[in-house]
């Protein structure tokens, strides 16, 4: 969710170590570009990203029987931070719902009140963002998501749909679930791979996409910027993923998605030197070629990282 990559077997095996993330990532890019970041919530973030946050306070996730204090310790900072104007990116990681799921399961009577509490917090932040948008003349973006789901038993860590499918809600003036006009007209993304969040947020924040990112931008969040910038964003994202594709996929130059990327770049170059009357016919073609190329290359790269030699792993562990 911060690097735009999928975990390897070693990453999964060493996950509990919570060691510093050394890969290029969204938070590090923000820090390097003089953005102030603040964080409140699961202290794991402070171990993964030391010296990144201007202000922070961690809460331990170890005491899973704690359903209230872990969240109260996050919310108590909201009043101060929502009245501060020095930060650009705030991360809040609430733990209470996760703890309820582990201890009592998803059918617990405590789930609904906890969800209502989270709803109220989202509403509170959103209302403040609306005021900020008018004051600063720039759109704010609120992202609400989970890092995992849970099984009916309350556990997670596997690959069942209940564990890997989680909601993603993005609230802001730049957001649209379905595009009614432009090159992505009618595009509705019911499913967004988790790795797509990083390049999308990088674009919205005006930051470089992390070098090892494998994800693609979410089209619905591009529609509010000039079309020339949309095409450049797609080109930049596609070029960055294509570099990974060239390095990691054998015979990359003959793959269909890579050929679409090359065709999109060729047409994009023609588009840039054409007069306005000639451009309209190419607009949608270029955008769709970039997105198709991104989708294909991203999917193939992600699949290559989660394909393991199971017999070899079992032999090694034995």
Describe this structure as you would to a colleague.
Belongs to the PIGG/PIGN/PIGO family. PIGG subfamily. Pfam families: Phosphodiest (PF01663). Keywords: Endoplasmic reticulum, GPI-anchor biosynthesis, Membrane, Transferase, Transmembrane, Transmembrane helix. The protein is mainly α. It has 2 domains: 35-175, Alkaline Phosphatase, subunit A; 178-317, no CATH class. Helix content is 48%, strand content 8%. The chain has helices at residues 9-13, 26-32, 44-48, 69-75, 78-81, 96-104, 111-136, 161-164, 197-205, 227-248, 256-272, 276-305, 310-317; strands at residues 37-42, 55-59, 89-93, 142-145, 168-171. A 3-stranded parallel β-sheet has the order 2-1-3, with helices on both faces. Strands 4-5 form a two-stranded antiparallel ribbon. Helix 10 (227-248) packs parallel to helix 12 and helix 11 runs antiparallel to helix 12. It starts with 8 loop residues before the first helix and ends with a helix. 27% of the residues are buried. The mean pLDDT is 85.
